[in-house]
Every structure is written in C-alpha cells, then in structure tokens.
Write a structure and sequence with these properties.
By secondary structure, this protein is of the alpha/beta class. The protein folds into two domains: 4-158, Rossmann fold (3-Layer(aba) Sandwich), CATH 3.40.50.970; 177-299, Rossmann fold (3-Layer(aba) Sandwich), CATH 3.40.50. Helix content is 37%, strand content 22%. It has twelve helices and twelve strands. The protein has helices at residues 4-18, 35-40, 52-64, 75-80, 83-92, 120-124, 138-150, 194-200, 219-226, 246-252, 276-282, 287-299; strands at residues 22-26, 45-47, 68-74, 97-102, 130-133, 154-158, 177-180, 186-190, 207-211, 213-215, 232-241, 258-265. The protein has a seven-stranded mixed sheet with strand order 2-1-3-4-6-5-10, sandwiched between helices. It has a five-stranded mixed sheet with strand order 7-9-8-11-12, sandwiched between helices. The termini are far apart. Residues 2-167 form the Transketolase-like pyrimidine-binding domain. This is Transketolase. InterPro entries: PDH/Transketolase, THDP-binding, Transketo_C/PFOR_II, Transketolase-like_Pyr-bd. Pfam families: Transket_pyr.
Length: 300
C-alpha cells in the first residue's frame, strides 16, 4: 500500500493538470516527487527552498491573486515555525488555501524533536476558520485533499505514515461515523488511531466513533452517541497533543452530565529516537496502553 504522502503527490500532480486555479508551493520537502508537475506547470509549482516563512507567505500571496494554493512541508515547518505567517497572511488577510503536512507527531523519530509536531492541531485551534482533516488511510487522504482543493476556505490536511488497515467514508459533511455501538461510554478515534482503539476496546460495551474531520468538531454527532446513557463518559483518542479536543467535547456535552478523558501525545519530550511504534507505546497510544487507560476511566 502506498503512503498518504505518496498519494498526496500523485493526487496533487493530477489536480494541477486538471485545474488551472491550483498552485503548489514547496520548501524542498517532497520536491523530487513533483519533478514532472514542475516541468509541466513552472508558473504554478514553486519551490522556495528551506524558507518556511516565505513558503506560507508565497502561498497566501498566490491566494490574493485568485489562485488556490496547496502549501506543503513537514508539520513542524508548516504550522509551528511560520505560525505568524499562517495567522496573518492567511487568516488576517482573509484568504483561503490548503496546508498539507507530513511527519505528524513522530513519523520520523530519527529526525529528532525538530521534525516532530504533536502541537500542530492545538496551535491551529487558536485561529478562526480553519478546517482540519486527519485521515487514517491513503484513500481518505486523497478524498479529503480533493475536497479541500475544490473549495475556497482555509484547510489543514495532516498526513502520517501510520494508517488503519482499511479506508472508511470521509468528507467534511460526513461528521463522526459510528464504527461500533455500545452503552457504556463513547470513544472517539481520530484518524490513524482507529485500529488501535478498536483493538483496545474489543469486548468493551462502548460506542466507537471515527473522526477524520476534527475541526469543525462534530458536537451533534457526539451528543447523539452519548445521549440516553445517564452520565456520558467520553474518551477522545488523538494522534497529537493529548487534550486538544477535550474542550470541544465538553462544550458539545454542556447540557448533559458527562466526563471527558483526552488521550494523545504527552507533553514530555522523549529524547530517544527509537521507532514510531516505540513512541506510540511510550505515550500509551498502542492497543495495550489504550486498553488500560480507557478501562480504568470507564470503571471509575
């Protein structure tokens, strides 16, 4: 199976051929994959070099001319390093574009902490008007990218090498989908967390919701799943900073007695490279760690 990043390159190259409104801005990362697209569309495929503030500013400038920019690099260099440009050049100027990241929270541990971005979604959450997609499979990444490219708003698509075994129907109008139904609580699995959540909750009487679009947050879908069970016990499992969506879940359940547990990447920096699976286990996001923490929360 190809990776989400492979699918992004193939899909974006095709979209550039089909839609003259689209432009692509790169900062060296993934440039080799776009060689053909750069030759075919030299006026709409721009590599600015290792200049991430310019990367975002150039994309927003293209948007001001009427183009639909797709802006791409690692998450830490796309959201964290040029955050002021994301806030001002896109948000303050009121223009749209598609930010597509790679690297996620710790896809490439050997790259060190500079290439890890567990706080990207939480940081974007401080800004108004961003749609955030977190696909869990290359097919989902393609569908969400196509939707984002065809629109006009500000969209962040967060890609990862971690994937679920199979794709599920996605789209900003889909909301949270019900994967498993139960009466003892609700577990929201975001993007590539779904397979581990399903393994962790096997045999537990819980509803499992699957989320690939996390902003806007599907509060109505959560209320439907949680309503009618007395006190609503909700666990949100996200592949980025733990607690990023707990406020949104609390707001959605304001009219119901409820408890919310946010599971995700911890704030403590892990200073050993290791492999991605070791980072998942260290943050308690493997099936075993999730089983222990979800079970303990629901038993209280």
């Amino acid at each position: 199976m190809d990776t989400m990043r492979d699918r992004f390159i193939a899909t974006t190259s095709q979209l550039l051929d089909e839609d003259p409104r689209l432009a692509l801005v790169l900062a060296e990362i993934s440039r080799a994959g776009f060689d053909r697209a750069e030759r075919a569309h030299p006026d709409r495929v721009v590599n600015v070099g290792i200049r991430e503030q310019l990367l975002v500013g150039a994309g927003a400038g293209m948007a001001l001319t009427g183009l639909r920019p797709i802006v791409h690099t690692f998450a830490s260099f796309l959201v964290e390093r040029p955050f002021e440009q994301v806030k001002l050049d896109f948000g303050h100027q009121g223009v749209g574009g598609v930010l597509v990241s790679a690297g996620a929270s710790y896809d490439w541990p050997a790259g060190g902490f500079t290439h890890m971005s567990p706080g990207d979604v939480a940081l974007l959450d401080t800004l108004d008007g961003w749609t955030v997609h977190v696909p869990g499979h290359p097919d989902e990444a393609e569908a969400l990218l196509r939707e984002a490219a065809a629109g006009d708003g500000r969209v962040y698509v967060r890609l990862s090498v971690q994937t679920n075994d199979r794709a599920r129907p996605v789209g900003s109008g889909t909301g949270f989908s019900v994967v498993r139904e139960g009466t003892g609580g609700v577990v929201i699995a975001v993007g590539p967390m779904l397979d581990n959540v399903l393994a962790a909750t096997d045999g537990l009487d819980v509803t499992v919701l699957y989320a690939t679009t996390v902003r806007p947050f599907d509060g109505a879908g959560l209320r439907r799943a949680a309503g009618g069970h007395g006190v609503a016990d909700v666990v949100v499992v996200e592949p980025y900073l733990a607690g990023t969506s707990t406020a949104a879940a609390n707001d959605a359940l304001a009219e119901l007695p409820h408890r919310v547990l946010g599971l995700g990447v911890g704030r403590a920096e892990l200073r050993k490279y290791g492999e991605m699976d070791e980072h998942l286990a260290a943050h308690g996001l493997d099936a075993r760690g999730l089983r222990e923490r979800i079970g303990a929360f629901l038993r209280r």
